[in-house]
Each structure stands twice: as structure tokens, then as C-alpha cells.
Amino acid sequence: MYEIGIVNGRVYLGKEFKVMNVYIKDGKFAEITKEKRACEREIDATKKMVLPGFIDGHVHLSYQDGEFISADDFESGSKTAAYGGVTTFMDFLEPISHEDQFKEAFNKRMKMGEMSAIDYGFHGTVGNFTGDTDKLKKMCKSSGITSIKVYTTYSELDRKCPDDVIYQLLDPEMMVLAHCEEEAMLKRRWLAPSTYEKSRPAMAERSAALHLAGLAEKKEGNLYIAHVSAGSTLDMIKLKFPGLIGKKIFLESCPHYFYLSDVKLNNNDGNLYLTNPPLRDGKELMRLRRSFHLVDTIASDHCPFMIEDKMKYEKAYQVPKGLDGLEYTFPLMFNLFGDQVISKYTSKPAELFGLKNKGEIRVGKDGDAVIFDNTLSNTIRESHSKSDYTVYEGLKIRGKITTTISRGQVIMSDDVYYGGKGQYLRRG
């Protein structure tokens, strides 16, 4: 007998929907059929969409920014993720400057991950790395990590990665995630939150992204440009590297860049909207929407803080940077782009990050599923994050996640959270 049956739903099977019944046994999709089967628990999904569990490839839990620590840990972060249909997320190890520091960084994050209710993986992270890149890559792979993050800025924190190190890390078997901002164009000690975008202009993002894309082309390595904030960045990469997009150069963006502009920074509570890269002007926002087809994945870059922390200082450079997003990432983007967003949350991040058992409703894959009612509409009022505000408050969205299933276990249904036990995902 099957453990769970999701019946009568519109099941997403890659590029099309079919009204089918989906059955899960031993944490795996076991049968997809039009026939009814015996099961311990049957969930009626009539007129609802049955989707693969979402993958958020970019979150920051228990993240330290100076004296501040982000509001969500793996326990609360996985809870708010469950309400957002996210069944897998990827966090980051702390930046290291030598391979000798890798084991400690990995073990520390693994201990934190034990609290997660959903499955999780990690990206390695380097700062001003002075060690042996070949040894580092081997250590990552032996720990199930096939992606490494680099920064092109933050030299004041010793996080700016040298070009030669980035070049060495670029590898057909390794994904290099890049925070792209040309440091020479940034003004780090910016005072006014209202004009913060001017301190880290879109030109700085474009310049760094194009430079790294050139390195990836030369080395034939895999480059993943994280949190693209400006439509002009997408358009310039398409212009300069049309044959590499989606093949060697992969582009990620986040909902806040599609919904929120730098106008928010003019408000008395503008500090609440500070993040890096910053929110852009309305023209860049609309340009980003027009170039949505170039984006490979959507991630939340979830890194919320408490209001008290965000409002503690008046000067922009002293304010912790980061926004929430895990809970509303999919409904927000579905609201704008409909079905075309689905693969950017499921099969594409699974492919790019080597999550072989995720991203599809297919027999043998992990039984991660989301039931989404696209007929419902609601206004965002709050989230299940520990943070005491959401930047999306007041936005009206179409669609609501009614059930989230992780490895065959219902972890959220009809606004009731049941919790779960996530597993560390070894990749490679």
C-alpha cells in the first residue's frame, strides 16, 4: 500500500500538465497513473496544480553581518520555506582563505543543518583565498559539494577573491557562484539610505559580471551569476556572450528585484529595504522583467533581520543588508510570469547543482511535492520567518500553496505546520 496519494490534481510533468494521481512510497514517487490505488492518506488536489518541490539555491541562515545575525536559523528558515513550497534549500559555508579552514567551516554548518525540516545542501565559499585551489576542489567534492561562491568585492572584510583564484576555480565539474560588483566603482561608507543605490550602481554589477563571463569563456568553466539585480546586466551578457547563456553562464535573480525599486529607500523605514546588490530604479526593474526569459533560476537570497537591527543606525553602511523571501518567492513570480517560472524553481536548479533526485515528479525521484491553488488570491500580511517584518507586506498575489510534502511526509497543509526532518544532500 502506498503511503500518500495525491489525486485528481493537474500534475506538472516537465512541460505540460496532466490530470493524474501521484503515489508516494518510502519517500519516493512510486506511481503516476490515472487509476486509483490504495493508500494510507489521500489528498484531493482537484483543480489544483501539483508541482515538484521547489529548490531555493540561495539562502543565508544564521548569517553574521558585523554585530548582527540574520533572524532565521535552519529551524525557523525551514519552517517559512515549507509555507513557501520549498523542500530543498542551499546555504553557504563561511568564507575561507585557505583549504585548511574548510573542514571546520563544513562541520560548523553541518551542525546547524541538523535543525532543518527540509533537505539542504551547501555551497563552499572563499574570500581572499591564498591556498591550493585543486586541493580545495577535492575537499569540496569529497564532502558532497560541487559549487563554490566567490566575491568580487568586500575587500574590507577580506572576502574579495583574486582573479587568478577565480580562474583556477572555474571548472567543467565545479559551479562557481559569483557575487558580481566591481569594487572600484563602489563607495562603501555611504551615509544616506535614501540614495544607497548610487553607492553600488548597476554599472558595477554589469562590469564585474561581464569580466567574469570573459574568464568563464576562456577557461570553459561553469559560472553562475547570483542575484542579478539589473535588467541591463542580463541584456549585456546576452549581447556579449549569447552562445554561453544557459550552457556555461547561468543567471539567477530574486523576487525583490522584480517587485521593489529604490523608491522604497526614500521612506522613513528605508533601512528595512537595504540589501546588496541594492534595489534598482524603475527602469532597471522593468528591463529585468522584459528579460526574464534569460534567467535560469529564481532564488530568495533569504537573509532577513529584525526591525530593531535594521533601524539601529542611520548611516547606510552600518545597516545589516538582506531581505526575506523564502515564503513568497514562488507565488510572487507566478503572479508575474505564470507557468514559465516553474522550471526555474525545480528542474533547472536541480540540474545546475547536481540534485539528481530532485526537481521532477517522476517515479524514483524523491517524493517532494507542492500543491498550489492558482485560483486563490490574497494580500501578504506577514510571514512565518522569525523576522518581525516582510518587505512584501501589502502586495496582492494570485495563488496559494496549500500543501508541502518532503520525501513523502506532509510538512505543511492548510496553514498548519507539521515539521519534518531534512537530510544533507551530497552532490557529485
Which ranges are low-confidence, i.e. pLDDT below 50, for 5 or more consecutive residues?
Answer: none
| Range of strand content | 25-35%
Shape: globular
Query: What multimeric state do the chains show?
Result: single chain
Q: Quick check: average pLDDT?
A: 97
Total number of domains: 2
Overall radius of gyration: 21 Å
At the first level of CATH, the class of the largest domain is Alpha Beta
Q: Please tally the β strands and state the result.
A: 19
Helix count from the secondary structure assignment: 12
- Give the CATH H-level superfamily of the largest domain: Metal-dependent hydrolases
- Helix content class: 10-25%
Structural class: alpha/beta
* Main sheet summary: 9 strands, mixed
From the 3D structure, determine the CATH topology of the largest domain: TIM Barrel
Assign the CATH architecture of the largest domain: Alpha-Beta Barrel
Termini distance?
33 Å
Description:
- By secondary structure, the chain is α/β, with parallel strands linked by helices.
- It has two domains: 2-51 and 368-377 and 398-417, Urease, subunit C, domain 1 (Roll), CATH 2.30.40.10; 54-352, TIM Barrel (Alpha-Beta Barrel).
- It has twelve helices and 19 strands.
- The chain has helices at 74-83, 102-113, 133-142, 163-169, 202-219, 231-240, 255-259, 282-290, 307-310, 329-337, 342-345, 347-352; strands at 2-12, 17-25, 28-33, 39-44, 49-52, 54-56, 64-65, 68-69, 86-92, 119-125, 147-151, 175-179, 222-225, 249-253, 297-298, 369-379, 396-406, 409-413, 416-417.
- Strands 1, 2, 3, 4, 5, 16, 17, 18 and 19 form a nine-stranded mixed β-sheet that branches.
- A hairpin with a 2-residue loop joins β7 and β8 (68-69).
- The longest helix is centred in the middle third of the chain and has 18 residues, at 202-219.
- The relative contact order is 0.18.
- The mean pLDDT is 97.
